[in-house]
Amino acid sequence: MQREAGLRGSGSGGRSTTILGAVGGAVGLILALIGATPAGAIVIRHDVADGRYRVADSYLPALVDLPVEGHGVLIADQWVVTAAHALTWRHEKLSSVVINGRSHAVADVILHPGARDPDAFLLRGDAAPLMAFQLQRADIALIRLAEPVRDVKPVRLYRGQGERGEIVEIIGRGASGAGVAGQPGDAPHRGPLRRAQNRIASADGAWLTYVFDQGRGALPLEGMLGNGDSGGPVLIRQGREWRLAGLASWQWWDGDLADFQGGVYGRTSYQVRISHFADWIDTTMRRQQSE
């Protein structure tokens, strides 16, 4: 059964804490920027047809759809990893998720002990204090399913340190747009499944970054996250299989938060770095299974 406290923070001492929902009353675009509401769908090149980015729903069976919006990834037969902020904005307990077209009941949700939502005063004015907060945040959580998933192969974690310079694939079914104007504010947060490419620009500590390029520097299916699918996978090819290297999280911004426009060319996107949290993931799953 899911714990009555709702979302649990799992620290080294195994203590549980109740996590409240995301900060309310802020402008939607700002919340998407900082990851207080789900972000991470695919914004595409303006000079490439949208149809080239679209893929069948079966493209990645281990992709997890959270209710309304947001994603996760099946990484073991009874475990899903996602971005913490894809969960903390919700006002109700997470009772089920959809994997490969089937609903699966949720037994428990465990937030990383460093998963925090920003205070309201950070959501207005100059972006610098908010960006500093974002860099210190651990935006990751685990979902334990009530029963094992038998018909879907989990995605293995990327555990190396060589992400920088690698071409990655990002996947999501939320809001879209094109890089010249960015993502429209009224774009729906759940729609057709898309995948795009980008190249990892940095791999430091808890974060991977990439930049939404255009022109000669852009990949054939260059793209970046938008709104609607935080927790969506960032995949690195290792041998013949894709490994989970990151989770869609937030975008960098300089200047006044009221002027933020997401999904435009030149924007830097931050992804939760799975290799940084691999030990926490392993330890948490072992501890929960032994209880």
UniProtKB/TrEMBL annotation:
Coiled coil: none
InterPro entries: Peptidase_S1_PA (IPR009003), Peptidase_S1_PA_chymotrypsin (IPR043504), Peptidase_S1A (IPR001314), Trypsin_dom (IPR001254)
Domain Peptidase S1: 48-286
Record SUPFAM superfamilies: Trypsin-like serine proteases
Pfam families, sorted: Trypsin
Swiss-Prot/TrEMBL keywords: Disulfide bond, Membrane, Transmembrane, Transmembrane helix
Segments crossing the lipid bilayer: 20-44
Keyword Transmembrane helix among record annotations: yes
Family annotation (PANTHER family): CHYMOTRYPSIN-RELATED (PTHR24250), PEPTIDASE S1 DOMAIN-CONTAINING PROTEIN (PTHR24250:SF50)
Protein name: Peptidase S1 domain-containing protein
Taxonomic source organism: Brevundimonas faecalis
